[in-house]
Each structure stands twice: as structure tokens, then as C-alpha cells.
Specification:
Helix content is 59%, strand content 1%. By secondary structure, it is mainly α. Strands 1-2 form a two-stranded antiparallel ribbon. A hairpin with a 5-residue loop joins β1 and β2. The longest helix has 32 residues. It is elongated. The model has no long low-confidence stretch (mean pLDDT 84).
């Protein structure tokens, strides 16, 4: 008993007990941790990368190079992130039909599963903006519309028009209309800054503000009623004045000619 008590009072006894407890905890965690689930996720991600690489070789490598390094026909894709791939391919801009000042939106030729695989491959080339989750761009707060309107008019209306209908830029470029654009793609455009658009990372524009802009654009282009009737593209006084001159004044001239012609015929008779 005296020997056992002496061992318990040994200065290294507490350290030995601590090491034993740590080893036991690590063993139990390794035995019961959900390793199968983590391994399944890694395997699925690896499979997506491999399938994405095959899709990339067929549809993208002729311009961007076999490894996304870029060429004289297309920029490097290293570090553009999965959000850029989801936007460019999801809106049909890529693969591009032909070079030009700006690649227009067109019908998408890939399924969402294929887009995710392409994004997984491009994402593996280097870190970049990540495809957003629905909670990041879907707003349920009515106040976000008004707040988003203020942000939109400050940061976006100069190019996209105050109602999101788009507008002309220099050298054949243009800011596209935002009507009918998916909320996720609007968010991704702010993340990545495609073509002529500047990017708005979280360090420049926080996630909440981007969500508010998305809420405003969706409300303005899809939900807001137009009590004035014909919108004329919502381009402001220029189109309204042009409409007045061409159709309004033209109608008055046509009526004046009709009245004069019938007055002349009445006098002759």
C-alpha cells in the first residue's frame, strides 16, 4: 500500500494520466467518427472533378486550354471559382458561339448536374468565388427591396438603367437587361464581375447587401406592376419623347392630310 501511494504521489503521475486520457479519447473518436460519410463525400467530389474534366476537354479546351491555362482565344480559368462557371455556363454565354465585343446570353446546353461537374473541375484548379447557396440570394424580408433599390441606383443603374432594362456601353459593348435573370445568376454576377461588369466581393459589398440588390431587381423586373401601361423599355424620357414625336406627331400629320383631302373633294363636288 505504501508503494502504491508513493507512485500516486510521483510528479509524473498526473502527466501519465493525462496522456492516457488523450489516447483513449482519440481512439474512441476514431472508432465512432462518421468516416464513411466523409470518405463518400470526397469520392463524390473526385468523381465530379473527373467528369467535369471530360466535359471541359470536349466543350471548353479549344479556347481555354486542356488544363484551363488559357490561350490566345480564351483567358485562363485558374482561380475564377465555381461561381463564375455556374454563371457563364448556366446563362448560356459559354461555350461562346463566336468571338465579339461581348458574349450574349443564350439557351443553355448543359444540365445543372453537368454544370456542377464543370464547376468542380475549374474549382480544383485554384480557389475563387464559390457558388452561392439559396439562403444567400433568396430574401424573405420586404424591407430588402427598398434597401436594395438604394444600392442598385448607387452601384448599378449607371449601366443597367434604373429599372434593370440594360443599356449601351462603348465599342459595341452593353449592359444586358436583368429581366428574367435567375436570382442566383444575379448574385454570381456581382461576385465574379463577368465581362464589362466590376466585381463586388464580400470585402467591397457584404453578402447581405448583394441579397438586397437581388430582391430589388427581382421585384422590379418580374413583380412590380406598371400602372402607366406601356413601359417602352423603361428607358426614360428619351424613348418616351421619341415615341411622342414619331407616333404622336405622325398621327396628327396623317389626320391633317386626311382632313385636307376630304375638304378639297367636298369643295369640288
Amino acid at each position: 500500500m505504501k508503494k502504491l501511494s508513493a507512485r500516486r504521489r510521483h510528479p509524473l503521475a498526473a502527466l501519465v494520466v493525462l496522456l492516457f486520457a488523450l489516447a483513449a479519447t482519440g481512439g474512441l473518436y476514431a472508432a465512432f467518427a462518421p468516416a464513411d460519410k466523409a470518405q463518400a463525400e470526397v469520392a463524390a467530389q473526385s468523381l465530379d472533378i473527373e467528369e467535369g474534366k471530360k466535359l471541359f476537354a470536349v466543350g471548353c479546351s479549344s479556347c481555354h486550354g486542356l488544363n484551363g491555362q488559357g490561350s490566345s482565344d480564351g483567358p485562363s480559368l485558374v482561380g475564377v471559382g465555381t461561381a463564375s462557371v455556374d454563371f457563364q455556363v448556366g446563362t448560356g454565354r459559354m461555350p461562346a458561339q463566336q468571338p465579339g465585343a461581348q458574349v450574349p446570353r443564350k439557351k443553355n446546353i448543359y444540365s445543372q448536374a453537368q454544370i456542377d461537374q464543370l464547376a468542380a473541375f475549374i474549382g480544383s484548379l485554384g480557389p475563387g468565388p464559390v457558388t452561392p447557396k439559396p439562403a444567400q440570394y433568396n430574401s424573405t424580408n420586404p424591407e430588402d427591396i427598398s434597401k436594395g433599390g438604394e444600392l442598385f441606383r448607387t452601384n448599378c443603374a449607371q449601366c443597367h438603367n434604373f429599372a434593370g432594362q440594360g443599356g449601351a456601353l462603348t465599342k459595341g459593348k452593353y449592359a444586358p437587361s436583368l429581366e428574367g435573370v435567375d436570382a442566383k445568376h444575379i448574385y454570381e454576377a456581382m461576385q465574379t464581375g463577368p465581362q464589362n461588369m466590376p466585381s463586388f466581393p464580400d470585402s467591397t459589398m457584404p453578402e447581405e447587401q448583394k441579397k438586397q440588390i437581388v430582391a430589388f431587381v427581382r421585384h422590379t423586373t418580374s413583380e412590380e406592376p406598371n400602372p402607366g401601361g406601356l413601359t417602352l423599355g423603361s428607358l426614360g424620357p428619351v424613348t418616351e419623347g421619341l415615341f411622342g414625336w414619331i407616333f404622336g406627331l405622325g398621327t396628327l400629320i396623317a389626320v391633317a392630310i386626311w382632313v385636307a383631302a376630304h375638304t378639297t373633294k367636298a369643295k369640288k363636288s
